[in-house]
Amino acid sequence: MSTGEAPSRSREFRSAAAREIAREPRGDGSERRDPRCDGAFQVASASSRDIWDEFVKSHPESNFLQSWDFYEFHLARGKKIVRRLFYDKEKIVGAYAGVVETAKRGTYLAIAGGPILDWKNHELVKKVFEDMREQGKNNNCVFVRVRPQLELSDQSLQLMNRLGLKRAPMYLSVEYAGILDLNKTEEEILAGASQGFRRKLRKTEKNEIEISAETSDTAIQEFCRLEKLHAERQKYVAFSSSFLTKQFEAFRQNGEVIIYTAKKDGETLAQNFIIFYGPEASYHYGVSSELGTKYSAAPLLHMEAMREARRRGCIRYNLWGIVEPNETNHRFYGVSEFKRSFGCEELRYTPAHDLIIKPAKYQITKLIETTRKKHRHV
Predict the structure, then answer these.
(1) How does pLDDT run across 263-276, given as a tens digit for each residue?
(2) Residue 354, helix vs strand vs coil
(3) Alpha-carbon distances of 358 from 188, 306, 311, rounded to whole Å
């Protein structure tokens, strides 16, 4: 993926950015200059949604993991967050957001899908990771866990090593995803899909299934209900209704989420929770009823979401996590094969790495997480 700098911003935007350079919120609501504003780059905590989202969305590799509203969701859960902006004079050149996760195995700062910057700017990269370490220390973290929005390569792994990071024992967000190129027409995407997918789609279209796109309270309530039933059938731990509702409400505020619902004769068959942010539409969650499995309603939901994504100017549709084709015993094998039936490209992100702050305590975390990963088969 491209990692170039953002295009030029308007004079108004640049002026607003300049005002943020020397300001950082205090706990009492006032602001102060960051004492580390020296050298080529300056850094400040972000306080403007517009400035943040305009910069992040301007980068083609970005998605909702570094959106403003994703961290509003974490705030609604009572979590502490950090949002940091990096400037070269008045121009924003880098950003990252993270959430402080507290756990018995150790408190850590989680930065999923970030930082957003030009990875070829080595001095900037160094500055950003130094700031991550300092933010981790300020929040009494054992480590900082980063899953960068950077395609996996020998060079990306070498970069993590040079920055002093170690491969994390547990993932942080999706590391292996199925991607559909929305620059392709619907006909071109269907031509690249499997025969089985096209057959299911034709069968579903004949079954007079009604598709709706909603952002109502009723839609998320129905999603929560169906997710509990889906979890019971598939034998996984369901998200709480509060977790899903808070996330939905955070993205709904700025029109970034839609719940697509498939119904037949008034009965819900399946629902997809889709987030639209900048260049990407993301298939975040999906649930179905037993009847929905029978009627294979999911393909219709995805096709409708992709149409909306194109209308919004998204350039890709992220089906999210998949596993290797030979991992037939993995609990996500079945859903991965369904996603592959779309004819998606397979994108591997650089996996999660840890910036260790407290080495002795980190060893306890590593032992616990390694054991859990084996037990959960993930």
Answers:
(1) 999 999 999 999 99
(2) strand
(3) 51, 45, 48
